[in-house]
Amino acid sequence: MGANATQAADDSRYKEGRSEDEFRQYDAAAVPGVAQFYRHNHEQMTVDYVLRKEAEYFGLTRGQKSIWEAAEFLNALVDESDPDTDLTQTDHLLQTSEAMRRDGLPRWMILTGFLHDLGKCLCLWGEPQWGVVGDTYPVGCAWSEHIVFHEYFAGNPDRNVPEYQTKYGIYEPNCGLETVHMSFGHDGYIAEVMKPYLPDEALYMLRFHSFYPWHKHGAYDHLCNDKDRAMLEWVLKFNKYDLYSKGHAKPNLAELKPYYDDLFAEFLPAKVAW
After folding, report:
1. What are the Basic and acidic residues biased-composition ranges (predicted)?
2. Residues 187 and 206 sit within 8 Å (Cβ to Cβ)
3. What is the 3-state secondary structure (H, E, C) of the chain?
4. For residues 64 and 187, what is the distance between their CA atoms, to the nearest angstrom?
5. Within its chain, how far is the Cα of 252 from the centroid?
6. Most exposed of 39, 55, 101, 168 (fewest Cβ within 10 Å)?
C-alpha cells in the first residue's frame, strides 16, 4: 500500500469494532467538513425551501426503480454529514438490516433497516447534500438548542420571521409530528415512497430516524401527540441499529442477496415509484 493509500485508510471514518461512545462526535475542529455541511444546511433550510422541495418530490414523479436498482444508483454517494462511516451506502444499509436480522427482529423491520437511507438518491438528482442528509428538525418554529451546530442558524433568513421564532410557530400544540414540516431530506422522502407498503411503525422509523433532537434529547414534545409518543419506542429501537452497526464488519453482498430478494418480494412490488 502506497503512502497516499495508507493515509486514506488512516483518515477513513469507517472503524470496525468501535464502541458506542465513539459515534456522533461532532467537533468543528476534528471534522471540519461535517461542520461546514451543517453551516450550509442551517443557513439555507427555510420554510419556503422545504415547501418547494416537498412539492417537487413528494409526488413521486422520478420513475420506477427496483430496490436493488435504487441501492446501486446510490453507491456513488459518500454522506458528507456522517462522521462515522465512508463505506458505500449499500454496505451501511446491509450493516443495519443484518444487525436486526441477527437479533431476530420482525421481517418488516429488517426491510426498513435496508430501506432507510435510499432517499439519499435525491443527491444524484442534483440536490445538494446539505438538503438531503444530516440530522433533521422542524421548520416554521423555534429551533431547538439540541440541534447539532445550532449556532449556524444565526445566518438563516427565517430568523427574521417573528412567527417562526416562537415555540409553536405555524403549528398548534400537540398537532402531531405527521403534520409538521421537517427539514427536507432523505428521511421524509423515503417515507413517502414507502407509505403504500409498510406499517406506521416502519414509516416513523423512516421519517424520523435522523430527528435526533426529538428521539435523543426529548425536544419538540410540545408538538407531539399520543401516537408520536407511542411510536418513539420504535424509532429508538431502530436507531441503535442505524448508528451502532457502522462499527460492524463489511457485509458480503453476494452471500446475502438471496435473502433480500425474498424479503423485498414479500412486501414490495418489483419496482416502486420514486
Report:
1. 10-20
2. yes
3. CCHHHHHHHHHCCCCCCCCHHHCCCCCCCCCHHHHHHHHHHHHHCCHHHHHHHHHHHCCCCCCEECHHHHHHHHCCCCCCCCCCCCCCHHHHHHHHHHHHHHCCCCHHHHHHHHHCCHHHHHHHHCCCHHHCCCCCCECCCCCCCCCCCHHHHHHCHHHHCHHHHCCCCCCCCCCCHHHCCECCCHHHHHHHHHCCCCCHHHHHHHHHCCCHHHHCCCCCHHHCCHHHHHHHHHHHHHHHHHHHHHHCCCCCHHHHHHHHHHHHHHHCCCCEEC
4. 19
5. 23
6. 55
Q: What grid cell was written down for 264?
A: 423485498
* Residue with cell string 416537498: 54
Whether 93 and 33 have beta carbons less than 8 Å apart is answered as: no
Task: Kindly give the confidence (pLDDT) of every residue in the chain, 274 residues in length, as a single tens digit, with 9 standing for 90 and above.
Answer: 333 333 333 333 333 443 444 444 445 554 678 899 999 999 999 999 999 999 999 999 999 999 999 999 988 776 565 544 557 888 889 999 999 999 999 999 999 999 999 999 999 999 999 999 999 999 999 999 999 999 999 999 999 999 999 999 999 999 999 999 999 999 999 999 999 999 999 999 999 999 999 999 999 999 999 999 999 999 999 988 987 555 457 889 999 999 999 999 999 999 999 9
- Can you give the residue ranges of every domain in the chain? 32-268
Q: What is the pTM assigned to this prediction?
A: 0.85
